[in-house]
Specification:
One of its GO terms (molecular function) is aldehyde dehydrogenase (NAD+) activity. The chain is an alpha/beta fold. It folds into two domains: 273 residues, Aldehyde Dehydrogenase, Chain A, domain 1; 196 residues, Aldehyde Dehydrogenase, Chain A, domain 2 (3-Layer(aba) Sandwich), CATH 3.40.309.10. It is built from 15 helices and 21 strands. The strands form six sheets. The protein has a seven-stranded mixed β-sheet, with helices on both faces. The longest helix has 21 residues. Bound molecules: 2-aminohexanedioic acid. The site of 2-aminohexanedioic acid has 11 residues, from loops.
């Protein structure tokens, strides 16, 4: 197999440096943390990290800022988010460069991530004039019942490497519009894009005359995340990452009666019915399975194909996999960039070994591509694996491009297989049979937070709520009425008569 040609780390370092310069970031050099690029697997800069004292200071500042921010009229809060959206538009290329450098995303997906940030800003600006409460008909004469929504407090955002900027923006744009302040602990793997986002928000705050402390960035390790999780000043912890992480975060936040919003693992499947348009299905499946090198929480990991079309479908998929351009994500022809780390490779290999041991057959891919100029970079051929049963390895989430293919005979069997995993994020069906499509979307169909028809599992747009059920954690972000998680409601009873009348006809005195 021929080796992959990659840019030199020096070139990437210079490119990161100029993007950061244009955004206005002064890189806090130090040796607490290192910025690294998966493109070559090499380090870029050493960075100063935030420790316990820095985290405490940020929490004090964010709490103090909240006390003013909560009474700033919501549409004025929207002005800050609007300005942030403008700056994101101005620096779209710079941010996309940093995302590609640190997360390894191909150009169009990195630009897409920044577009998602711009879209959520637009959404949150609109929201700043739509934080509606209801009025409720009172059972008492001369009384009114109302529901009022108030800002919640400091929101702790913990985000992952794979959407290093968009997930921050989903939380931050909405939280700020809702009157909350934000303390952000990004993945240690993506400090540079985090610095850029933080800097743009500080610039937006300066431009509209808002104190910068409405947002604080913590570039730290796990201990910093734990500090946010355990601190009662953090009213809501919004955490995106593995189910293992969520299993720790959820109970710890609950133990202090804090709120958590969890976006955890997915094990997303597509059902391909006999009536499916296979051209459409193949395109949808390949993007969902190998986009972002299989490192989205919405990545398609299981394919449940009807017996009658399974062979044809798998033949077309393996042919498409055989032609995937894999390599330098800055190269405009590349579709599959690097895996984030050697650990991701070890997990992929471990899963493939286990599934082979259980009788699974690797039909395509699975091998590492040689990178002679950068031995620590990890590029793999995405894998397609035929499995007979949904064993533990198939039921677990491996954050790498492995697509398990299973077959079914009856629609009920397909739904049962589909739902028989611990996670419940995203799902899809390819069919031209309307009854099947509707059943898939019905209460007895997909048990996921996202259920699609004739489109893959990944690439959700802003506007709809994003999140999933079961071990995915139950959180909803970014669209619909997800804003309510960032606010607290109060029920008001207002007596505008001059008589005291008690509810439930109680008489007293
Ligand atoms: C994630 O992988 O954490 O639907 C988020 C999608 C993107 C977001 C994914 N809009 O694939």
């Amino acid at each position: 197999m021929t080796g992959i040609a990659l840019p030199a780390t020096d070139e990437l370092r210079a490119r990161a440096r100029s993007a950061l310069d244009r955004v206005g970031v002064a890189v806090p050099e130090g040796n607490g943390l290192r910025a690294r690029t998966p493109i070559t697997g090499e380090d870029l800069f050493g960075l100063a990290a935030t420790g316990t004292a820095g985290t405490e200071e940020a929490l004090v500042a964010a709490r103090a800022a909240f006390l003013d921010w909560r009474t700033t009229p919501a549409p004025r809060r929207g002005d800050l988010v609007r300005r942030l959206g403008d700056l994101l538009r101005d620096h779209k290329d710079d941010l996309a460069d940093l995302i590609t450098i640190e997360a390894g995303k191909i150009r169009s997906e990195a630009l897409g991530e920044v577009q998602e940030m711009i879209d959520i800003c637009d959404f949150a600006v609109g929201l700043s004039r739509q934080l509606y409460g209801r009025t409720i008909a009172s059972e008492r004469p001369g009384h009114r019942l109302a529901e009022t929504w108030h800002p919640l407090g400091v929101v702790g955002v913990i985000s992952a490497f794979n959407f290093p900027a968009a997930v921050w923006s989903w939380n931050t744009a909405v939280a700020l519009a809702c009157g909350d302040t934000v303390v952000w602990k990004p993945s240690e793997l993506t400090p540079l894009i985090s610095l850029a986002c933080d800097r743009l928000l500080a610039r937006a705050a300066d431009d509209v005359g808002v104190p910068r402390d409405v947002h604080r960035l913590l570039l730290g390790d796990r201990a910093v995340g734990e500090q946010l999780v355990d601190d009662p000043r953090v009213a809501l912890v919004s955490a995106t990452g593995s189910t293992r992480m969520g299993r720790e975060v959820g109970p710890r936040v609950a133990a202090r009666f804090g709120r958590s919003l969890l976006e955890l693992g997915g094990n997303n499947a597509a059902v391909v019915a006999p009536s499916a348009d296979l051209d459409l299905a193949v395109q949808g499946i390949v993007f969902a399975a190998v986009g972002t090198a299989g490192q989205r929480c919405t990545t398609l990991r299981r394919l449940i194909a009807h017996h009658d079309i399974a062979e044809t479908l798998v033949g077309r998929l393996t042919a498409a996999y055989g032609k995937l351009p894999i390599g330098d994500p800055f190269d405009r022809t590349t579709l599959v960039g690097p895996l984030i780390s050697a650990r991701a490779l070890a997990e992929m290999r471990g899963a493939l070994d286990r599934v082979r041991g259980e009788g699974g057959e690797v039909l395509a891919g699975g091998a590492r591509r040689p990178t002679p100029s950068a031995p620590d970079a990890v590029y793999v051929d995405p894998a397609v694996v035929r499995v007979e049963r949904q064993t533990d390895v198939v039921r677990g989430e491996t954050f790498a491009p492995i697509l398990y293919v299973m077959t079914y005979d009856t629609f009920d069997e397909a739904i049962a297989l589909h739902n028989d995993v611990p996670q419940g994020l995203s799902s899809s069906i390819f069919t031209r049979d309307q009854q099947e499509a509707e059943r898939f979307l019905s209460a007895e169909g997909s048990d996921c937070g996202i259920a699609n028809v004739n489109i893959g599992t990944s690439g959700a747009e802003i506007g709809g709520a994003f999140g999933g059920e079961k071990e995915t954690g139950g959180g909803r972000e970014s669209g619909s009425d997800a804003w309510r998680a960032y606010m607290r409601s109060a029920t008001n009873t207002i007596n505008y008569s001059s008589r005291l009348s008690l509810a439930q006809n109680v008489s007293f005195l």
